[in-house]
Amino acid sequence: GDSVTQMEGPVTLSEEAFLTINCTYTATGYPSLFWYVQYPGEGLQLLLKATKADDKGSNKGFEATYRKETTSFHLEKGSVQVSDSAVYFCALTNAGKSTFGDGTTLTVKP
Amino acid sequence: GAGVSQSPRYKVAKRGQDVALRCDPISGHVSLFWYQQALGQGPEFLTYFQNEAQLDKSGLPSDRFFAERPEGSVSTLKIQRTQQEDSAVYLCASSLLEGVDYGYTFGSGTRLTVV
């Protein structure tokens, strides 16, 4: 079946550091790929998405590129802020069903 | 409504008790999903509705779990004879159209603790 593997956390960075959270997937067909974010005490929110190979999703300074050749969808941000502290989930959707990774906890210190 | 609303926010049930969890999706959203999220893990798919039709229930862990969406809007997830392993956060999500390429809008979840 489909699966998503995320970089294990927790990840701790200083403010303005560069962020990469790795995500790779296994799926049949042509899934759509997503990053969701969960801030403390809140529900999951869609951060960005890409629906086909080589698409780049972007939002709030975060970016991820759908790489079919490496089956990856790594999340990046050039300069993180304290307010980016949250849990980040990589997910794919295939044939009407979504599969999530286990989440990566990011803590950004001032 | 403005978002996906779930109730109750927290539920403590004695082992063997039946529980019902409610989800109010965004008005007009066709697709509705239920997920189970254990502590420290990502959401696991339970079931999917398109309007009132339950198109996929392959993720329901046992026949103690039952979901319905009789009028194509509000959905209820029912768990009979709860067990300790049922303790988790139950998430509801909805999507505007049939395809899920648009991503979901999630509710805040119901945290179920079975004691």
- Strand content of chain B is over 45%
Helical proportion of chain B?
Answer: under 10%
Task: Give the terminus-to-terminus CA distance of chain B.
Answer: 33 Å
How would you classify the helix and strand content of chain B by structural class?
Answer: mainly beta
Spatial separation of the terminal alpha carbons of chain A:
41 Å
What is the radius of gyration of chain B?
13 Å
Secondary structure topology:
The complex is a heterodimer of chains A (110) and B (115).
Chain A: E1 3-6, E2 11-14, E3 19-21, E4 23-26, E5 32-38, E6 44-50, E7 56-59, E8 62-65, E9 75-77, E10 86-94, E11 97-100, E12 104-109
Parallel strand pairs in A: 2-12
Antiparallel strand pairs in A: 1-4, 3-9, 5-6, 5-10, 7-8, 8-9, 10-11, 10-12
Chain B: E1 5-7, E2 10-13, E3 19-24, E4 31-37, E5 44-50, E6 53-56, E7 65-68, E8 75-79, E9 88-95, E10 105-106, E11 110-114
Describe this structure in words.
The complex is a heterodimer of chains A (110) and B (115). Chain A has 110 residues and is mainly β. Helix content of chain A is 0%, strand content 54%. Chain A is built from no helices and 12 strands. Chain A has strands at 3-6, 11-14, 19-21, 23-26, 32-38, 44-50, 56-59, 62-65, 75-77, 86-94, 97-100, 104-109. In chain A, the strands form 3 sheets. In chain A, strands 2, 5, 6, 10, 11 and 12 form a 6-stranded mixed sheet that branches. The radius of gyration of chain A is 13 Å and the shape is globular. The N and C termini of chain A lie far apart (41 Å). The model of chain A has no long low-confidence stretch (mean pLDDT 94). The relative contact order of chain B is 0.32. The termini of chain B are far apart. The mean pLDDT of chain B is 92. Chain B has no helices and 11 strands.
